[in-house]
């Protein structure tokens, strides 16, 4: 893969030139850029040297909300049609509008790297997490895992993905997307018998602190998806993981 899969896509491939065995797609937050995900990409590459890591740019320039103007990118606008910040009622439609383009980008990335959906992980932060969660909600199995840092659902789901495992990571003192959204998501997914886990770093804000990054690496290396258990044992789906649990 010698050219970007889309303009300004950052990409890191196996250093030995071999074909990637896994694909991790990093989706940045509102007002940020692909370059902001580079430190996370380096950590993932160290842990998974045979992985391809891609960090696309948000599809739109930030349009600003009120007097706020930024030079970064966004996946969807936070400006309300009524003025000010987006409302809860407006958010689902904004996210839904970007999903077809994101789904097509993901399929292109998978074809270009030769990595299938089940070996693909979407790793999002904030607005990127929202998009990742909603993408697999609409396209179950488009990725084998979602790692949602400081994210939330645009609207809580009525059904849980069966082919995608969801991992939530949140700061207990997040003032941008309160941890209550992640807790509500895990409770809903548990009721729907979804395959999901949650880790909370008390005192952390809207960020990816080292403690949650360590949790993410452990989830990636030790959590056996419930679909794998179902296939091997014919068992019913287990309840979603409870806060702070780490899988052995």
UniProtKB/TrEMBL annotation:
Name the Pfam families for this protein.
Abhydrolase_2
What domain of life? Bacteria
Instruction: Mark the transmembrane ranges.
Output: none
Q: Which Gene3D superfamilies match?
A: alpha/beta hydrolase (3.40.50.1820)
| Matches recorded under InterPro entries | AB_hydrolase_fold, LYPA1-2/EST-like, PLipase/COase/thioEstase
* Domain Phospholipase/carboxylesterase/thioesterase: residue ranges: 18-222
Keywords attached to this Swiss-Prot or TrEMBL record, sorted alphabetically, are: Hydrolase
Q: Does the keyword Heme apply?
A: no
Belongs to which family?
Answer: Belongs to the AB hydrolase superfamily. AB hydrolase 2 family.
Q: What is this protein called?
A: Esterase
Give the species.
Answer: Pseudaquabacterium inlustre
Q: Could you read off the lineage of the organism from its UniProt record?
A: Bacteria, Pseudomonadati, Pseudomonadota, Betaproteobacteria, Burkholderiales
Question: Which gene carries the instructions for this protein?
Answer: ypfH
């Amino acid at each position: 893969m010698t050219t970007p899969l889309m303009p300004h896509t950052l990409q890191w491939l196996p250093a030995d030139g071999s074909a990637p065995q896994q694909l991790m797609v990093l989706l940045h937050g509102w007002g940020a850029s692909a370059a902001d995900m580079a430190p996370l990409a380096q950590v993932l590459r160290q842990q998974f040297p045979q992985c391809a890591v891609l960090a696309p740019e948000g599809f739109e320039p930030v349009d600003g909300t009120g007097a706020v103007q930024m030079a970064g990118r966004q996946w969807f606008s936070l400006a309300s049609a009524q003025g000010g910040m987006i409302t809860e009622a407006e958010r689902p439609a904004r996210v839904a509008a970007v999903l077809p383009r994101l789904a097509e980008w993901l399929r292109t990335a998978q074809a270009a790297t030769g990595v299938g959906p089940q070996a693909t992980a979407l790793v999002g932060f904030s607005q990127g997490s929202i998009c990742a969660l909603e993408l697999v909600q609409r396209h179950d199995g488009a990725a084998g895992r979602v790692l949602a840092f400081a994210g939330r659902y645009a609207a809580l789901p009525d059904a849980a993905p069966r082919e995608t495992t969801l991992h939530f990571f949140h700061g207990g003192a997040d003032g941008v997307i309160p941890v209550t959204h992640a807790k509500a998501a895990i409770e809903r997914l548990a009721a729907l018998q979804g395959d999901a886990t949650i880790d909370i770093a008390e005192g952390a804000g809207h960020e990816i602190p080292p403690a949650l990054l360590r949790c993410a690496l452990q989830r990636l290396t030790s959590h056996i998806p419930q679909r794998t258990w179902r296939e091997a044992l014919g068992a019913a789906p287990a309840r979603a993981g409870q806060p702070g649990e780490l899988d052995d």
